[in-house]
Design goal:
By secondary structure, the chain is an all-alpha fold. It has five helices and no strands. Helices cover 69% and strands 0% of the residues. Helix 1 runs antiparallel to helix 3 and helix 1 packs across helix 4.
Length: 140
């Protein structure tokens, strides 16, 4: 069975969707850690739910692993491919797109990102140890 390529307008919309999904993951990684620390200080029990903490740890672990292995994020690759299919330059046009990309993408040597992601991952591990997740007992 042959997979059909998205039409240019559809590819452009899908590229925006991938960009926003990418931003959501970044916000989850960074904001999630802030919520875990603040929530523990403010006695918000939900920040230590096992599902939330496991999802957060897994999300940053993927980022750190990709950085150490020198793998380009699949979301970046997919968005670039969709932009090319739409006939536009990757990361080129649109007000929202421009600002979202300025938040997400920076120019620096690879070692800077590997170091930053590794330190952030280490911080997540320290917070995991300092504020361990709680497994809920059935019925609670």
């Amino acid at each position: 069975m042959n997979a059909t390529l998205p039409s240019p307008p559809l590819a452009g919309l899908l590229a925006y969707a991938v960009l926003l999904a990418h931003l959501a993951i970044v916000v989850f990684n960074v904001g999630g850690l802030a919520l875990i620390v603040a929530g523990n200080r403010l006695d918000w029990r939900w920040v230590n739910r096992w599902w939330f903490r496991a999802a957060h740890l897994a999300a940053i672990a993927v980022v750190v692993a990709q950085a150490w292995l020198g793998i380009t994020c699949p979301l970046t690759t997919l968005e670039s491919w969709l932009r090319a299919k739409a006939g536009s330059m990757p990361y080129g046009t649109g007000f929202i797109e421009h600002w979202v990309q300025r938040i997400l993408f920076y120019e620096a040597p690879a070692w800077v990102f590997v170091t930053a992601y590794s330190l952030f991952g280490l911080l997540v591990a320290v917070v995991w140890w300092r504020y361990p997740p709680e497994r809920r007992k059935p019925g609670t």
